[in-house]
Amino acid sequence: MKLQVETNINGSREKVWSVITNIEGSAERISGIEEVEVLERPEYGLVGFKWKETRTMFGKTATEVMWITEAEENSHYNVRAESHGMIYKSVIAIKQNGDQTILSMEFGGEAQNFGTKLMSVLMGPFFKGATRKALQKDLDDIKTWVENN
Prior knowledge:
alpha+beta, Alpha-D-Glucose-1,6-Bisphosphate, Chain A, domain 4, 3 helices, 7 strands, globular
């Protein structure tokens, strides 16, 4: 499963970057996130930043451990998580477009065993739509925060 969502934000690239890289403050800005606990903080930059994120999705509360695997300041960062036989990868990116910033997110999951591959085939279409809506809501929440603060 691979998805991409984006939104246009009235704000500078630098302001959007400062909001999306303040991961420990995400629960204040993104309604889908209930709690963030920082597990590891690199001495410099974002690569290696690791955290636990608690959300409610599909009516259930889940906590996942995530970490940043690559980052380029004011451009993008990549996130990885491994859970229940799946590897999840995300790319959060920004591009300046005049006085607006385009914030995008690519999200994908790779099944690692037969059971998760079978579940992906059977449940994939349902999860894809719900996941797309959740990701878009996250971006819309970030847009609202940047434009109003």
